[in-house]
Amino acid sequence: xxxxxxxxxVVMGQGYVGLPLAVAAAERGYQVVGYDVDEGRVKKLxxxxxxxxxxxxxxxxxxxxxxxxxxxxADEDLAxxxxxxxxxxxxxxxxxxxxxxxxxxxxxxxAHLRPGAVVVLESTSYPGTTEEVLGxxxxxxxxxxxxxxxxxxxxxxxxxxxxxxxxxxxxxKVVSGVDEASLARIADxxxxxxxxxxxxxxxxxAELAKILENTFRQVNIALVNELATHADGLxxxxxxxxxxxxxxxxxxxxxxPGPGVGGHCLPVDPxxxxxxxxRTLGTRxxxxxxxxxxxxxxxxxxxxxxxxxxxxxxTALSGARVLLLGLAYKANxxxxxxxxxxxxxxxxxxxxxxxxxxxxxxxEYPSGLLPSGPVAPTAVELTAxxxxxxxxxxxxxxHDGVDYERVTASARYVLDCRRRLAPGGAVExx
Length: 430
Prior knowledge:
This protein is of the alpha/beta class. It has helices spanning 18-27, 39-46, 57-66, 100-110, 129-142, 180-191, 203-234, 238-245, 265-281, 286-296, 298-312, 340-350, 384-389, 404-410; strands at 8-12, 31-35, 69-72, 83-86, 92-93, 96-97, 118-121, 151-154, 173-175, 197-199, 321-325, 354-358, 378-379, 392-395, 414-416, 427-429.
């Protein structure tokens, strides 16, 4: 499908999911409104300043100059949309799904919904959300029925920040619709902005597939994280065992230990499925809950390992100066959502350590992470002086472009949570 210059696309939410979609669609000829309730975000976007690592500011500026992309906080700018995609957050509140952002977006769109328009949900949620929550809400607010008057479907996001091979456009896009006509329209739209679309039979299938993808990773990461804690106690090199196991050409997929899991997907999405199973079937999804518990415990384990390493060097954690390398939840990204690095920094500061954070990718720190105070975490640059002054260097996120040779040559003690450095001497692997 080649978009008409009159095709108006509204993307509700301009974060790590919505902004790449908005930019890709605008570059392919759509007239795009990037809607967000965060005025600060919209102000940055309006002057061509990107806060998403995968989207360069020069791309934004070119689209702004061409008049194909318009960021906005105004509901009236939604008027006349042909296609609307909802990419808003779906957090957990007290262990239960919070769909308030989806509902708010749906209400805003319903005021401008027209016959023949297309509405797609991309926000991750439990199976049934599109047809049981969003569809009835749009019907109630607009008087138009999904499938009869307008097209409705679900297409799970598969954004992997910092992945240069599998980008928004090169990653296969799952699509679904509440009826055949909706599926066809939604597949045509995404087929015009990505290389491959994968039809799912129903929105419920697509919703479950998304959570299955993330649950698979959550469970396998929990497995190797727990194995790492036991292997250390048994005196076995977990990383070498992984290398050996990975030589098997079938029946094994390599996952690696780390300081925990972050982003929206792994810490949150599997628990949506667990909640839905318990609410609908009256039984618990124990494997998902256990995996979440194991991964949530990793920041505390990292701090205990660091404290043990300092003890061996006759240094107490309280009062120690710790240089924390990487705060984002994954390499080459500035995304700190649910990042274990944030939890580790707070735990260290609470224990009385002087925490110095190095992460050139992070431009916006979580609220309350860098308050004033004698032991509050401080953002610094990686210098020879900082390395020399640190009692310990804690490698949490292994960004590229960091002078790791200087770290290994100058640091008194390094705890490497990512096996980026060769172990031995002052370097210890998680």
